[in-house]
Structure prediction request, 457 residues.
Amino acid sequence: MKNSKQIRQEFIKFFEDRGHRFVRSAPVVPNDDPTLLFSNSGMAQFKEVFLGTGVREYNRAANSQKCIRASGKHNDLEDVGHDNYHHTFFEMLGNWSFGDYFKKDAIGWAWELMTNVWRLPKDKLWATVFKGGEGVEADEEAENLWRTITDINPQQVLRFDKADNFWEMGEVGPCGPCSELHIDLGEGTCPLSEEHTCSVNLEGCWRFVELWNLVFIQYQRFPDGHLEPLEAQHVDTGLGLERICRVLQGVDSNYSTDLFTPILSCISEVTGQKDTTGDVGVAFRVIADHLRSLSFAIADGAFPSNEGRGYVLRRMLRRATRYGRLLKMHEPFIYKLVPVLVEVMGDAFPEIKKQQKHVQNVIQAEETSFGLTLDRGLEIFEKMILNPETKKAKILSGDDAFKLYDTYGFPVDLTRLLCEERGFVTDENAFDKLMEKQRNRAREAGKFDLSLDEWTE
Prediction:
């Protein structure tokens, strides 16, 4: 079985052998872009090339980019732990062409790597292309290439609309159709009810998993909405390392790959918890995921605080700490997990190895500080549910849930869990409205431009 280091290196070597320059990951904390909270795609460090404001000494690149998605449109924070594939931190393998090769090579190489090098079963692979719409023609070129230069089943090349198969930087600027490769994991892998029919791009369906997104940047969108062809056409692709490791290692969860199992084993050892089913399993996955985001962000210069990216990190650490209480951990412990993360990822990203002690010190200090706040929050929660109206209705109000979230760092899923343990429910509709008001205030403040969160995987 291939380990994650082999898979990462095989991807990089495959494209190096085809004339690509290996470019190290940019910091997950953008040094030259104060409007972007975190690097959230492989494209982030190359955006000036696509915008036409910069050039590189090479026209083909490949790398594995550290990414965090815990804010803005692509915000996976509250989903982490509840399924087998959501993460706030992930690696994005990618290859790029800056005005060099285009669709034929991008599609051909993607198929070659997947089927010849990694030996994925061809009958399990599905491709998607842009079907056209809103004044943009269908991507018949990509569709024909899938059918002619690969031996994919022609019935497994599907057309989808703009939401799934068209990439845009924003309301204006470079854009273009994209083509995705999905894999069918087989019957019995989807948790949805038997009444539904599993299919590609179906929300909530785990049977069909998107592996690789090939973006063909060929248009420029102008303020009036019309498109014109770009003089130089570009390729940007993204392949999630966690997902391809899951497939190649033959396991049923991203968290069962060797990117996570050493961390999960360390959590078990530190906490003494051996049964990782149910809520305990959720806690393990949350802590493992958030450890990765926190460690890489801190190593790259971020620091937990009450604003901006620091606030996102503080929320993550508090969420992980609160889940630690479910594991009976009342003292700082997350910092003790950093060395095993360094063992797993330090070779690919030496900065995490170099900054290990600093990362541990920051996490330990934050854990210690929040422990006092958390204890106070739990006291407040107990008082809230003893309120006569709350006790009678068995409903924790949205205001109370939001106060726990905003003041004491309780994510709503943990408040929900506390309520369920006592036979209560949370008024999540009211909570969501308060959250939306907070998001609107943040947008109006305009400190960070979250539109870049819409950049492709």
User: Anything to note?
Assistant: The first strand starts at residue 21 and ends at 22. The radius of gyration is 23 Å. Residues 4-254 form a domain with the BirA Bifunctional Protein; domain 2 fold (CATH 3.30.930.10). Residues 32 and 288 are 29 Å apart (CA to CA).
